[in-house]
Design goal:
about 15% helix, 1 helix
């Protein structure tokens, strides 16, 4: 056997071993991500109950309400966030999420949007984001509220969609944080927040 063919055989063997290692590494990355990806379903109970909602007919005008015909924005990256009303009464939801297109000096890159009307049993896609966190506030027809310790701007009288607020009607009812688990390298995930009694 010649030295030239022995040397060529070693190169092929080395390249084959390197390719096998690269394939094994890629397969392990895909397996780890497959466990992180997929559907996440979380339930949320109201933080406060009242005798009646302050505003039973949200939104008053300029409806942002979706009624089951909305098509989810499917991003190759990010998390599609759905809300499910399992509370038993109509619920109105408002959200705050990171949006790099919102860039108000001193305010940040956050988009506030509401109100979404969810009838009992209704599930709706509300937004898609690549950020690890988003926020929401909700009120039910019977006065129950889903609020939290995080600041956010909510217009209690009208439907709205704006970058972090300069709205004179906006108030801060306290929002709940949604931990979406961060950015997913290999595709979109689905996150459903179920509002329960």
């Amino acid at each position: 056997m010649s030295t030239k063919s022995l040397s060529s055989g070693r190169r092929v063997a080395s390249l084959s071993a390197a390719l096998a290692c690269a394939c094994a590494l890629l397969a392990s990355l895909l397996a780890v991500n497959a466990n992180a990806a997929g559907k996440v379903v979380v339930a949320a109970r109201p933080s406060a109950r009242g005798t009646a909602a302050l505003r039973l007919e949200k939104p008053v005008s300029g409806s942002v309400v979706r009624t089951g015909t909305a098509k989810p924005y499917v991003s190759p990256f990010g998390t599609s966030v759905y809300f499910q009303n399992s509370y038993g009464k109509t619920v109105w939801v408002t959200t705050e999420r990171y949006n790099s297109g919102c860039n108000l000096p001193g305010v940040g890159n956050w988009e506030n949007e509401g109100w979404y009307r969810l009838d009992p049993g209704q599930s709706e896609w509300l937004f898609t984001t690549t950020n690890e966190y988003a926020y929401f506030y909700a009120e039910a027809a019977d006065g129950a509220k889903w609020s939290g310790a995080y600041g956010g701007r909510v217009n209690p009288y009208y439907a709205y969609d704006y970058c972090n607020s300069i709205d004179s009607y906006a108030t801060d009812p306290g929002m709940r944080q949604i931990d979406l688990g961060g950015w997913n390298l290999f595709g979109a995930t689905s996150y459903t927040l179920t509002l329960i009694p």
